[in-house]
Amino acid sequence: MRLEPHGPVNAELDPLTGLLNRRAATHLLDRFTTDASANVPCSLILFDLDHLHYANQRFGHETIDVALNAVASLITARLPTASYAARFGGEEFLILLPGLSLAPAYAAAEAVRQAVQDFSFTPMDLRLTISAGVACSPTKPTWTAMDLLMLADMRLCVSKKRLVRSRNTVWAGRLPCEWAAQHDEFNDWPAFDIAPDY
Question: CA-CA distances (angstroms) from residue 119 to 65, 113, 124?
Answer without folding.
Answer: 16, 10, 10
